Amino acid sequence: MCLAIPSKIIKIENNMATIDVEGVQRQASLMLVDDPKVGDYVIVHAGYAINKLDEKFAKETLGLLREVFLPPEKTE
Description:
single chain; alpha+beta; SH3 type barrels; five-stranded antiparallel sheet; 5 strands; about 40% strand; elongated
């Protein structure tokens, strides 16, 4: 099973993007995405951005993933 996490493009150089997820940055090819721009959100699989996402949807998805994977805060 693969989990695709929305990633924000923060830099583009020679058809390669630097993408960011919660401060973690890595490289991804943009060969499969039409008209990518800095600030776009993409889904990345095996080092390739495969689809652009609407910013609102990407942020909602990241929020849900935080709720699922981060431990609950103590309320004491």
